[in-house]
């Protein structure tokens, strides 16, 4: 039993030590860590959380689901730094970004910058759950309540002069500027002097470069004597200025407390070590008394106090061992009262403390460890026993200047006390639950502007209340401070872009209006290139939602992974749509997954098991079977759609940087580019042979991380764009990179994409997502459109299972290329080229026409397209317009009909020969007759043919149309018609006698007399036996003579039309 107890105790202690070790490493500056590198911090974090089996930031304990405190904040920090460290050693960069930028600008290429960047937002939201971006701090004008400033973790310093109705930025010329605190000089109204503490104190994305100073109201900035390199990993948590002496200031940092008496020209480290989150004056005693709160990762944080103006400090009070972080505020209405809130090791509330003797001792007035008292958790349900929270990330406290018993406490939500912290009520809630006002989650800063006006800064923006929190007003609209991870651009409508934001979900802009489409942290986003209503948005680790109706509804498509698969992706997981089949998506986790039905089902197509997760992937636009992937260090390629993968890592450049992005040439699957992070000259590389060898094309780029690279696929010449940590750059052909950043802040560009206007290419648009300054767009650099173009295709093309169709594909090209072959490819019936079919080629150096053949059996469809590829150099045209192909395996049938039936004495009479469809090559001689001839063949109403039949004798007349005498448009031959027959009864002597007609002599030498009993007018026609009319006349008298002596000897048919009756008689010339 003793041995077992010891083992359990050892496990608990070991876990505790690991816990504190990663937190110590995470929050401490590098010199305090003793040189600990990124990997050591990462390993400590992962080792601590390993027993908890955390999935997506949550774990289960005793059957209850818990949020892993600090998990999300660490993973954000990890994502930011993993491409900026030395990949081999894990060391943080020893750089000063302001210096790098200044030096680069002084030596940059002087080529004209054609860009014209315009901000697109997001700069408005509905507030509450929906936000724009995190805000760290706020400070107010000394006399004008409408003027105040805010600081954002990556978006810099912002100012309003109309109470928050409009905002302007003051730090866009500074690189990657985070602001954690702002102070104004006592004589600000005349000196216009502002100081800012740089960096991101709570997130650590941007480490501090020290205190900056402006003497022209923020137009320009200079460094002060308190400056840090990024590798030092300092965070300034508080900047405090003496209320009557602007030269005296204090900063609390994660490496001690600093003081200056000359405006930071020089400084003294008055507390030489320790993580301090807060430093405060005792009101009305600023010359003597200050307080500072020291964080202790092992528990028992301390309150430090100075009574000599901050020159010397003593530990005045120790909080309980369960506490780690402490935030302070001092009552202005009674300066002897000091409040402290303490969070626990897992981020929950340890307690609220009150001192009534200027910090000599404290009383716990509210115990956060009591069940149901954790004011820092997420759920807030009655009787909630969850003791975790985010107290190491968001913790703030503010006391009313008019009432020392009125407090606001901020964690995930905001709480209010009116009795000195003894009792608390929920004031606002992150989604408006529990009858509280809806205000965005995660509070970082609270401050009273006056006795009635109170502000809070949170992960969504800046909020104001003038009625103690009964109502809150979101003042963030107009600021552009979103930290965007990735973007997706529509190719079917202009200016529709979806973005993934830290803290504030996935947002879609359409026609300049922003919509919230998915909550949480937003990551990679994609819009289907054929249909803007089909879109994808992602949460952390690659959880993807799909909409088919523009976000009226959505479904989690990664919930459809095969049973038993627990694989997930990186913090920002890549996925791509097949360029030839918009139903097919490739997703990068530890392996590559593929869906061919937009995520309804998935199949693993690799067995790489990459422990670092896939971080970038690209598919060749001209060959969808060629895919490249990387996990920072390892590089893989498939040229058969994932059936097998080749490790081409050994061919990569030798560098200590991480691969950040892959891009493949639009026309050549072996031509690709990659970018690198880090702070050296290894920024962009090019391969012309599928990764077998690489060329450094970094000249002209600054020595800061390059995060993305894309090609303008419409350009006749090679044009590339790269996004870096200080803006966008452009490269054409063999020229060096040049700055392409007019009007764009000096900001981290996380991704670039182009909207291609195929009709007017010069109106194409380049979009950039940034980490801290939202979404931007610009025109492209001037270019001539890519040379190869396909002319319009028209008409309908018919094939069958046995016959092909010929099609001419005309193309133009504005270059001459020797030894070139142009090949035409046919898409499927939906216009996708995933299974394109080669239908013809032409060896040519210039424009021409390819005589193509559409294969037998091609299915019917109206969406077929063609494209032409060039062999040397390798590139391809855009797809042609859509056209129709008809698969026709139906043979023509034929029917014979007539108004005459049974027996007839008419001669000639009409017969209709009707085919079931249009046919070709049907002529008079194709008709088989017995006892008759054709006197007329009329094809004007085809496929109905009208034929006049002239019987040659009394008796049966038969008509046949044999098989295979005619064919339809694709060559299908006709079937045989059913034989048609009729009995012809010529009008004989009896009929002639009935009308009193007598013909004599018959036979004769050609002269005949025709007598009638009455003077009945009659038309008269004489036909030869071929049915040809050889004589026409009329009978007008009782006795009429006709002279046919000019005709050849033989038998003829005489036809009389009397009283609408046709009477025929045979006559003979001898």
CATH superfamily annotation of the largest domain? YVTN repeat-like/Quinoprotein amine dehydrogenase
Total of domains: 7
Distance between the termini: 143 Å
Q: Report the helical percentage.
A: under 10%
Low-confidence stretches: 1-20
Largest sheet descriptor: 5 strands, mixed
- Give the overall silhouette: elongated
Computed structural class: mainly beta
| Rg measurement, Å | 44 Å
What does this entry look like structurally?
There is one protein chain. With 1070 residues, the chain is mostly beta strands. The chain folds into 7 domains: 2-81, no CATH class; 135-257 and 449-480, no CATH class; 274-436, 7 Propeller (Methylamine Dehydrogenase, Chain H); 484-779, Methylamine Dehydrogenase, Chain H; 790-887, Immunoglobulin-like, CATH 2.60.40.10; 894-984, Sandwich (Immunoglobulin-like); 989-1069, Immunoglobulin-like (Sandwich), CATH 2.60.40. The chain is 7% helix and 39% strand. Helix 1 (2-27) packs antiparallel against helix 3.
């Amino acid at each position: 039993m003793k041995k077992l107890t010891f083992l359990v105790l050892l496990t608990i202690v070991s876990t505790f030590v690991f816990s504190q070790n990663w937190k110590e490493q995470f929050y401490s500056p590098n010199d305090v860590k003793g040189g600990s590198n990124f990997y050591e911090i990462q390993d400590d974090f992962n080792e601590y959380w390993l027993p908890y089996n955390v999935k997506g930031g949550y774990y289960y304990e005793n059957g209850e689901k818990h949020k892993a405190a600090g998990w999300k904040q660490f993973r954000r920090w990890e994502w930011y730094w993993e491409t900026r460290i030395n990949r081999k050693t894990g060391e943080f960069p020893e750089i000063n970004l302001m210096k790098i930028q200044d030096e680069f600008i002084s030596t940059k290429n002087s080529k004209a910058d054609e860009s014209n960047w315009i901000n697109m937002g997001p700069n408005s939201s509905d507030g509450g759950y929906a936000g724009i971006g995190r805000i760290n701090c706020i400070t107010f004008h000394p006399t004008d309540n409408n003027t105040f400033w805010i600081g954002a973790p990556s978006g810099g310093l912002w100012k309003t002069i109309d109470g928050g109705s409009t905002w302007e930025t003051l730090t866009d010329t500074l690189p990657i500027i985070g602001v954690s605190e702002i102070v104004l000089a006592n004589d600000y109204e005349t000196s216009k002097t502002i100081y800012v503490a740089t960096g991101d104190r709570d997130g650590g994305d941007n480490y501090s470069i020290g205190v900056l100073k402006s003497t022209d109201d923020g137009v320009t900035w200079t460094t002060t004597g308190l400056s840090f390199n990024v590798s030092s990993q300092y965070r300034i948590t508080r900047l405090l200025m003496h209320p009557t002496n602007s030269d005296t200031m204090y900063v609390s940092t994660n490496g001690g407390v600093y003081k200056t008496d000359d405006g930071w020209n020089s400084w003294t480290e008055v507390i030489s070590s320790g993580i301090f989150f807060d430093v405060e004056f005792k009101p009305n005693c600023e010359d003597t008394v200050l307080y500072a709160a020291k964080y202790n990762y092992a528990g028992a944080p301390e309150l430090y106090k100075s009574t000599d103006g901050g020159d010397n400090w003593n530990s005045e009070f120790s909080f309980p061992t369960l506490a780690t972080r402490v935030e302070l505020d001092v009552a202005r209405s009674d300066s002897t009262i000091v409040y402290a809130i303490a969070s626990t090791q897992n981020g929950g509330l340890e307690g609220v403390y009150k001192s009534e003797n200027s910090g000599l001792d404290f009383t716990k007035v509210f115990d956060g460890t009591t069940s149901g008292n954790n004011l820092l958790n997420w759920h807030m349900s009655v009787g909630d026993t969850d003791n975790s929270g985010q107290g190491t990330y968001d913790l703030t406290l503010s006391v009313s200047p008019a009432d020392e018993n009125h407090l606001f406490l901020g964690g995930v939500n905001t709480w209010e006390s009116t009795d000195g912290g003894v009792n608390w009520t929920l004031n606002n809630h992150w989604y408006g639950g529990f009858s509280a006002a809806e205000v965005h989650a995660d509070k970082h800063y609270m401050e009273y502007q006056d006795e009635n006006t109170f502000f809070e800064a949170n992960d969504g923006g800046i909020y104001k209340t003038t009625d103690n929190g009964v109502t809150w007003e979101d003042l963030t609209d107009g600021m552009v401070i979103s930290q965007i991870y990735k973007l997706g651009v529509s190719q079917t409508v202009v200016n529709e872009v979806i973005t993934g934001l830290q803290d504030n979900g996935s947002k879609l802009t359409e026609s300049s209006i922003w919509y919230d489409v998915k909550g949480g942290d937003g990551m990679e986003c994609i819009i289907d290139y054929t249909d803007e209503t089909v879109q994808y948005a992602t949460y952390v680790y690659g959880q993807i939602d799909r909409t088919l109706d523009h976000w009226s509804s959505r479904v989690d498509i990664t919930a459809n992974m095969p049973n038993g698969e627990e694989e997930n992706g990186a913090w920002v997981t890549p996925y791509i749509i097949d360029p030839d089949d918009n139903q097919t998506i490739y997703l990068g986790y530890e392996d590559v997954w593929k869906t061919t039905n937009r995520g309804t089902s998935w199949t693993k197509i690799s067995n790489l098991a990459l422990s670092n997760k896939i971080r970038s992937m690209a598919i060749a636009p001209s060959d969808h079977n060629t895919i490249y992937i990387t996990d920072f260090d390892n590089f893989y390629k498939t040229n058969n759609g994932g059936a097998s993968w080749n490790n081409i890592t050994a061919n990569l450049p030798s560098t200590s940087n991480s691969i950040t992005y892959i891009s493949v040439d639009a026309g050549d699957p072996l031509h690709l580019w990659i970018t690198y992070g880090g702070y050296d000259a290894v920024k962009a590389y090019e391969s012309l042979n599928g990764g077998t060898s690489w060329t450094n094309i970094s000249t002209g780029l600054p020595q800061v991380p390059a995060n993305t690279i894309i090609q303008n696929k419409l350009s006749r010449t090679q044009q590339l764009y790269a996004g870096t940590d200080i803006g966008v750059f452009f490269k054409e052909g063999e020229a060096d990179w040049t700055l392409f950043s007019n009007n764009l802040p000096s900001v981290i560009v996380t991704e670039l994409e182009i909207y291609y206007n195929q009709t007017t290419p010069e109106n194409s648009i380049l979009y950039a997502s940034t980490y801290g300054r939202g979404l931007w767009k610009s025109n492209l650099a001037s270019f001539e459109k890519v040379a190869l173009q396909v002319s319009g295709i028209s008409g309908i093309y018919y094939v069958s299972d046995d016959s092909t169709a010929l099609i001419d594909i005309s193309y133009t090209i504005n270059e001459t290329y020797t030894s070139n072959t142009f090949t035409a490819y046919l898409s499927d019936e939906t216009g996708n080229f995933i299974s394109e079919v080669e239908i013809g080629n032409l060896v040519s150096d210039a424009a021409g026409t390819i005589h193509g053949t559409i294969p037998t059996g091609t299915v019917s469809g109206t969406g077929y397209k063609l494209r032409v590829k060039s062999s040397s150099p390798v590139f391809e045209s855009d797809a042609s317009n859509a056209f129709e192909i008809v698969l026709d395996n139906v043979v023509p049938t034929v029917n014979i009909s007539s108004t005459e039936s049974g027996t007839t004495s008419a001669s000639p009479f009409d017969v209709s020969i009707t085919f079931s469809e249009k046919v070709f090559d049907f002529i008079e001689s194709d008709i088989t007759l017995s006892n008759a001839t054709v006197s007329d063949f009329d094809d004007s109403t085809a496929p109905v043919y009208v034929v006049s039949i002239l019987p040659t004798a009394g008796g049966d007349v038969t008509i046949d149309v044999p098989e295979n005498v005619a064919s339809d448009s694709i060559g299908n031959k006709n079937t045989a018609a059913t034989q048609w027959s009729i009995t012809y009864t010529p009008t004989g002597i009896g009929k002639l006698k009935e009308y009193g007609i007598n013909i004599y002599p018959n036979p004769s030498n050609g002269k005949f007399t025709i007598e009638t009993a009455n003077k009945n007018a009659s038309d008269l026609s004489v036909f030869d036996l071929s049915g040809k009319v050889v004589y026409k006349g009329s009978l007008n008298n009782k006795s009429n003579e006709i002279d046919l002596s000019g005709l050849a000897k033989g038998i003829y048919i005489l036809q009389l039309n009397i009283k609408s009756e046709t009477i025929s008689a045979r006559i003979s010339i001898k």
